[in-house]
Each structure stands twice: as structure tokens, then as C-alpha cells.
Amino acid sequence: MSFQINPLSTALGAEVVGLDLAEPLDEETFARVHQAHLDHQVLVFRDQHLTPAQHIVFSRRFGDLSGHVYDQFLLPGYPEILKVSNKKTADGDFAGLASAGRRWHSDLSYAETPSLGSLLYALEIPPEGGDTLFNNMYRAYEALPAATKSKIDDLKAEFLIGSARKYYTENERPPLTEAQLASVPPVEHPVVRTHPETKRKALYVNPAHTVRILGLDEAEADALLTELTEHSVEPQFVYRHKWRLHDLVFWDNRCCMHIAEPPPPDSNRHMHRTTVVGDTPY
Ligand code: OGA
Ligand code: MN
């Protein structure tokens, strides 16, 4: 199948034009898509018309899919799909997770086995705003001074959903129930991880789910986390995605963070996300 892969920024990201993901991909096409994902970290498939089942079938090519701790926002009949939406139901509740990521984060980095990547499909978008930003955690790591690299290379950090939940109290994101919280106990992951496919090193700590860097005194650990976070989202490492209707964006959670900007009030933004299960970070 003939299709184009066009880089979207100097930091990361490429768009894929002329590929219909509703059709099964042959092995050669899949291999090209897979390699492009490793090379560009974020792929934007334009103009897709996918049923939930087709979205799932394509996502499954990359691995098993996970549900989500916010299980009330899974699409009925399709537990592999998380609704990311600011729309309201007839009862006035959000139709999906309204604020899926108001801080820089990597999906499921709070889990024992975090995510390989997520595939977010735009079914309704606001006329403007509601952008998603992505960063390149390989480049962020590579650009650090040698002394910082050797200091952090073998450090671990503690991760907990919403950094001890303190960021998730806004009304767009309902508090987790006891059972939901119990399903995501704190975990430890390396501060710097090696991507299991490319073997490149990437920073892995993020300001949403990393509680603290371990093995340092508290003030030093906090200062280091802040320094690494601020460094990793400098503009040269960031791609801003302005959504077009029917974009399907597939990002690599092993070497990118992302953040969602709030859509303008009174506008609808409605998306479906699948989440591919990854490996234990090392
Ligand atoms: C997510 C997320 C980004 C967005 O779905 O993982 O962080 O732009 N959402 O809604
Ligand atoms: Mn996210």
C-alpha cells in the first residue's frame, strides 16, 4: 500500500497520510508503520474512520491492551477503550475522563507494568484549542550534562497515580474509589530507562506520577525531579499537536511524555483511547 510518512517537527512526531487503518495491514505495511513509530515516537494517522472494533484490532497488532483504573469511563461493550471526553451525559456527568492529562506524564507509569503506547482517536474536536503536546525523552536524556547522566543513570523513583492523588482533586477528574486506589499501589521504576526495542536511553520520570527520586535526601530529590522535568519539556524537545477531526495519534509511552491543554469552555472534545501494555522498565 502506498502512503507517506512526513515529519511534523524537529523534536519528534510524523504524520501518516494515505493509509486506511480500517483495513487489515499486510506484514510489510505493518513493519513500515512499526519502524516509523520507533523512529518518530508519535505517529498521526490522518483521516481515519474506525469503529471501536477496528480501533482495537489495529491497536492489538502492537500488544495486549489494558483497561483503565477509571473503569467507569470504559466504552460499554469495549473494555479496551477509554472515553476521553468533556461532554456531559443527560445526568450532567462527564461522558468520559475529562482531564486525561493536565500535567506532563507517561500513561500508566504508575503501574507495575506500564504502557508501551496509547492510541487516541479524535471523534469530536473543538474549533480550536485542546491541543496535546508531546516531548522527546531520548533527546532530553541525551542533552543532559555528563555529570547529571552519571548521577541519575542507576537511580530509581517511586511512582503513584497522580503523585499521591494530590493533582486529581479537580472536579473534571472524579476521586478514585477505595477499590480503584487499591488496584494501583506505589511502584518503583528507573529514572532513566532503556527502550526495549531501540535500546536507546530515555528519561522516565514525570511530574504527574513520580512521587520522589529514591536514595537522595528529600530536598535534593525534589530539586532533581524539578530540574529534570523542566529540562525535558524545553521547547526543542516538544511537538504541539493541533488535532484534526479523525486523527488517530499513536505515541510511545516509553520515550515520550504528553500533556493535554484544556479545550475552550462550551466546546466538545470527544476521543477514544486504547492503551497497549508494555514491559517492566529497566
Ligand atoms: C490520554 C491523555 C491527552 C488528551 O488520553 O492519555 O493524556 O489530549 N489525553 O486528551
Ligand atoms: Mn495520558
Task: Describe what you observe in this structure.
By secondary structure, the chain is of the alpha+beta class. It has a single domain (4-277), classed as Clavaminate synthase-like (Double-stranded beta-helix), CATH 3.60.130. It contains 7 helices and 16 strands. The protein has helices at 27-40, 52-60, 137-142, 146-152, 162-165, 178-182, 218-232, and strands at 4-7, 14-17, 42-45, 74-75, 78-85, 115-124, 132-136, 156-159, 187-190, 192-194, 201-203, 210-213, 238-241, 248-252, 256-260, 270-277. The chain has an 8-stranded mixed β-sheet with strand order 1-2-3-14-6-16-5-4, covered by helices on one side. The chain has a 3-stranded antiparallel β-sheet with strand order 13-7-15. A 3-stranded antiparallel β-sheet has the order 9-8-12. The mean pLDDT is 94. Bound molecules: N-oxalylglycine and manganese (II) ion.
